Amino acid sequence: MKRKRVSDILLPYNEVVPLEPSVGPDEKIVHAIELMVTKNLKCVAVVSNQRPIGMVRLEDAFEKLGLRSWKGKHAPMLKPLE
Length: 82
Hints:
Blueprint: E1 22-23, H1 29-39, E2 43-48, E3 51-57, H2 58-64, E4 67-69, E5 78-80
Parallel strand pairs: 1-2
Antiparallel strand pairs: 2-3, 4-5
């Protein structure tokens, strides 16, 4: 099974996304999710050689791992895809 890396879900960089915190393109998607959840972010910059090369959205990261957000105020945050 191929390891899921940030580079698998890389989007073009948007200048409104701060460069800190950031992840590298070869880091695991799980690490990016942990960072975004801990910092309460919806996206994070992807940096290589101290330059932004893209960004990753939390929603895309969950989807790549086979998870999706539930809609609704009192529903659990995540549900496995069926």
